[in-house]
Amino acid sequence: MEIEKILVPFDDSEHSVNAAKYALYLAKLAGAHVTIVNCYGWSSYISEVPISLMKEFEWTRMKEAEAIVKKAGDIFEGQGVEYALETIYGLPGPVLARQAEKKEYDLIIMGSHGHSDIAGLFLGSVTHKVLNTIYCPVLIVP
Asked: Domain residue spans in the chain?
C-alpha cells in the first residue's frame, strides 16, 4: 500500500501530539502529504440560547480551533513535509468520516484519547466513531 495522503485529527491533547509526531515520521518515510484537522462547534442544540450568543460561541470556538491546529503546524514547520491545516465546523466523528471519504486519504493517524467529554471504554469516543465509519486504514497512537 502506498501512502500519499494522511489525515491527522488534532485537539492538542498529549495523544494527538503523539499522533502528529508519528504522522510526521511516516510522511517523511513515504513522501506523503499530511492534513491536520480540528473540529469545532456545538455538541448539541440548545433552543434557549439566543442566536447572537451562539454565533459568538461559534466564532470563539473557530479561533480556538485555529490556534490548536497552529500548534500542530509548529510540529511540521521546517521538517520537509507538505502539510495543510484545516478547521471544520461540526462534531469530530461525522466530520472526520466525511473528510476521509471526500479527500480519499490513504491513512488516518489519531490519538487513542483526546479532549472529548464522553470517553469510550478503551478508546476515546471520537476514535471509536472513526473506527466504525471509516473505509481506510486507521493507525491509533497512544
From this structure: 5-141
CATH code for residues 5-141: 3.40.50.620
**Which pLDDT tens digit goes with each residue over 128-138?**
666 666 678 88
Lay out the sheet containing 33-40: strands in order across.
Answer: 83-89, 33-40, 5-9, 107-111, 138-141
Q: Which residue has the cell 518515510?
A: 29
Q: Residue 72: CA atoms inside 13 Å, Cβ hemisphere, count? A: 35
Integer angstrom CA distances of residue 63 from 4, 16, 80: 29, 19, 27
CB 107 within 8 A of CB 130: no
pTM of the predicted model over 0.85: no
